[in-house]
Amino acid sequence: MATMNQPVALPRVPTEPRSTLRRTLGLFSTHKLELAAFFMLTVLSAALSLIPVFLIERIVNVITPDETGNVGDTGTLFVLVAAAVGIYVASGLLDVARAYVTQAVGQSIVFDLRRHLYGHLLRQSVRFHMSSATGAVIARVTEDVNQVELVLTATLAEFFKAIVTMGIAIALMFMLDWRLALLSVIVLVLWIYPTERVGRSQRELRRRFQAETGDMSTHIEETMSVSGAIVVRSFGRQPYEAARFDRSNEAMRQIAISRAMGARWIVMGTELFGYLAVLLVFTAGGAAVLSGNVELGTVVALAVLMQKTLTPFGLITRVNTQLVASMALFERVFNYLDLHVDVDDPVHARPIAKREVAVRFDRVTFAYPDTDEAALEDVSFEVPAGKMAALVGPSGAGKTTVTYMLQRFYDPTAGSITLNGVDLRDATLEDVADSVGAVLQDSFLFLDTLAENIRYGRLDATDEEVMDAARIAGLGSVIDELPEGLQTVVGARGYRLSGGQKQRVAIARAVLKNAPVLILDEATASLDSRLEREIQEATARLAVGRTTLVVAHRLSTVQAADLILVFEHGRIVERGRHEELLALGGLYATLHREQFASGAQSPALASGGG
Ligand code: ADP
Asked: What's the pLDDT at 536?
């Protein structure tokens, strides 16, 4: 967060259903000029690299005696050699320029891709994050995109150069002697079938290797995450996990060996084929020279061209395999870019007035994705501006879901939720986020300083404001005890704050954010009494003047609430004030006996905070 710049608008991804290949090519559409330069440079450098073949032809003819037994002069020989050297240098320089253009285009495409991908993922609703494996998401944005980069900057560029070089070489062969050239082309074509076969099995191995790698990553991520590692440890399942790991590890070992050996066979086949092809040219060409039909230089030049054709030919077959495999890669990336954004900004947004905000649920029904049963059913209530509503009810009744809906993590299946009369779906997500603050029990800390973690509530808050917020949240004494105060790095790999301390960070963030609507999630478990009182006091200070919804577990809270909503199975079954509901003798009265009354012994109640 310390590195956070000015907030930027999230990049929008154009959704266009097209084939993967066309979309991949489409990535280049904004780089037409560079592409033209790339093509030109490729053709030039390929052509240049082949011209010395003619010089070689001349050199051979200069140094072999003609019919009269005369040979050419040494001067000509040197000139020819010097020309060849010059051409090779020029071709090399062109290649360097080509590499620059390739990198420039490739890297900027990859930059955009990464940017769009991450932006699009940030735009995803909570639903996405609940249903996807973090490891897979990380792999997509990092590894997959890096692979894409390789394909664009190395594979595609090489592929194109190889095709151009081969094309020119074959054309030159035909110019030298069409019969020998035709013979060579036939030999090349015959070679395509076996390479294609081996290529297919290589693709399959590659796919399996990637699948195993994915499984292994997920496994590592699960067992190495803090909560996963703790479960492994507490059940003593290290040997079990090690065995599970060995299985993918072993599979990877075998696939890797098969892959490498397959590749080796290809190399061996290609090399052997190359020797045979050149020998063929020499045999057929040699016979022609002996019968006086062809000059020796021509045969040597043809042999060199044949060799020059084989290298790109081998490359084309190999790269072709990679390209086909990479289509799956591009498809995976595109699939992420195509993810539907189910909770999005409206086209024409209505602003939410930020003062005296009333919250209203109007016949809200909601079922979590892929579930049959509704988590909320026909829920209607209104919390007038500045009032406090307490949500109570047994676990699983839908209280947390109400707080999610109010933050527009999800949209209702039916009904509407409004802030000051503005439907959440008609406001921008940013506006909703600015209007509703939340202090949850377990708030996430980023691996950064405590100061920056608090500043997450308002990015432009000054150091003084951060400090004030920390004090209001009751973090003052905590900060004094931390090794580096506010500058102590906290979060998963930093200084580990306790649950109560984390909650106070959440309060401090909410203080800075200063949203007119506040969601509080009271701790279920009893914290140590002094801490609990401090937190209650801090939240009470925070709640003053705000429209507040509390998921309540404390008697003091429900007693202080302007309105208590009793939830059961996703419905509001009772509503009213504490005394009224007690008198009703229903679910609330039961809950009061079982849950809140036990809290009556808690000193938190004695403090009467709320
Ligand atoms: P409470 O906060 O009152 O304990 P919740 O709002 O967490 O209850 O849960 C209400 C219902 O929704 C429960 O039946 C729960 O199983 C279900 N639920 C909660 N979160 C999800 C989710 N992400 N996916 C599917 N069902 C969920």
From this structure: 81
Q: Do 331 and 20 contact (CB within 8 A), yes or no?
A: yes
Q: Return the residue whose CA atom lies nearest to atom 19 of ligand 1.
A: 401
Residue 277 has pLDDT above 90, yes or no: no
What b/e string do you get for 574-605 counting C-beta neighbours within 10 Å, with b at 16 or more?
A: bbeebeebeeeeebbeebbeebbeebeebebb
List the residue whose alpha carbon is closest to atom 24 of ligand 1. Answer: 368
Residues 6+ apart with CB under 8 A from 155: 319, 322, 323, 326
Q: Specify the 3-state DSSP secondary structure of 112.
A: helix
Closest listed residue to residue 87, CA positions, set 59, 40, 55:
55
pLDDT in tens, 500-547: 888 889 999 999 999 999 999 887 665 667 777 778 888 888 888 899
Residue 483's contacts (CB-CB under 8 Å, 6 or more residues apart) are 495
Distance from C-alpha of 209 to C-alpha of 492, rounded to nearest angstrom: 31
Which residue, judged by its Cα, is nearest atom 25 of ligand 1? 368
Task: Name the residue at shortest CA distance from atom 26 of ligand 1.
Answer: 368
CA of 364 to the centre of ligand 1 (A): 15
With beta carbons less than 8 A apart as the criterion, state whether 535 and 527 touch: yes
Take residue 168 and report the two structure tokens written for it.
């020119």
Do 285 and 299 touch, CB atoms closer than 8 A?
yes
Pocket lining for ligand 1, CB < 6 angstroms: 130, 368, 371, 375, 393, 395-401
Amino acid at 305: L
Three-state DSSP state, 525: coil
